[in-house]
Amino acid sequence: MTHSPTAPVPGAAGPTFDIGGDMPVGRIGYGTMRLTDHPGILPSEAVIWEPPRDRAGAVAVLRRAVELGVGLVDTADSYGLGAVEEVVAEALHPYPEGVVVATKAGLARPGPGQWVPLGRPAYLRQQAELSLRRLRTDRIDLFQLHRVDADVPLADQVGTLKELQDEGKVRHIGLSEVDVVQLRAAREIATIASVQNLYNLAMRQHEAVVDYTAAEGIAFVPYFPMAVGTLAAPGGPVAEVAAELGATPAQTALAWLLRRAPNVLPIPGTTSLDHLAENAAARDLALSDEQFTRLSALGG
Asked: Which CATH architecture best describes the domain 17-228+261-269?
């Protein structure tokens, strides 16, 4: 169900959110998936298969993100077959205080363009150990199940993450691309600190998850947060609000997410230092009630 634009705003909240109750981060993070893409490839064509071709540039972007106050850095074992985790460690280890590194496991990559849910306990445990090694840490801040594997009982998948947490190898547990029913079931097995789903101003199929996580104090991490398509076209509704604010459409889309609920932590990704700074500056962009309502009415 789409969030009603006439309902009371859930709260713009402050500049930070405590993931799991004890990991405060700034509310705009950084997603590392695009670091594997090389110049000239379109996002729709990206296979997220090769290591960064401009490794020094990737390191520079990650370090600059932290300088700009980004606290949540999101990656996955499947991005460049683990290469992006290695770049994160190269750029940021030893990790500064206040920087939370989140990674994911549960999507196997048998070939370019292939993403296969794989939630067998032995596989998840193996990938956790590999991520620990690549990230150069003895505990993963936030370890997320990248996808629920329909062929493996949820109790086995989330239970493995809980075992890793009990062993001190994982601090907090997250899920990705789940609905409220799955989230409730997972919470019967372990404490869930975050949910990472596809969500933005144009794609609002997870409204119920946003509302549920906000009510329960669980971080909601929308990926592809600025993929708003024609809504941001010149003369379009997002561009119109952006012009009123003296901002860019991308910043306006991020500002809407921050206003949507106090637990929302967008993770825009980029390989551009300029775009990185632009995204980070959206933290200071305040939508009026009327602007928020007008943009909210656009969602399907």
From this structure: Alpha-Beta Barrel (3.20)
